[in-house]
Amino acid sequence: MKLWLTYCAVFLSGILALGVLFNASANPEQVILGRWQETAWAYEQGIAFAADIAAASKSGSVQPEFSFHKAEDWEFLPGGRLRLRIAGKEEWLSWSMKGRGHVLQIKYGDHRIENYQLTVLKNNKMVLNAESDLQARGIAQLIFERDKSTTYAQKIQ
Predict the structure, then answer these.
(1) Which CATH number is 44's domain given?
(2) Report field, pTM of the whole predicted structure over 0.70
């Protein structure tokens, strides 16, 4: 009888420990909410990657798999809404997390879809990897820092 109680206690403590770990981990859909400032692009294969994206964006015959974003403010809002601001203009898109929370999918109004690998997501830093083998050769990283103003998560608390 004592052995059975010992097994039950060990099993229940293991379940409790797993529950605590799952609750302690941050949900990427909550962490990403707020305003992010795009600070840099880093390229694996130098300037050739940027030139390929720019050329694909200018040619009307082929849609690139992702846009050449530059110095934009990205604001992730609840409900899957994304507001991009660049040079005084706003563009409304939709976003969602795919996979196990490691793929950020952005949908444009013209049904174009961009997928980014979410490699770093901390309270003040986010890194998205863009990889394309159709038009651009190599890997680009979009590096973001959280806007220093009040974040959405801070507003609702």
Answers:
(1) 2.40.128.280
(2) no
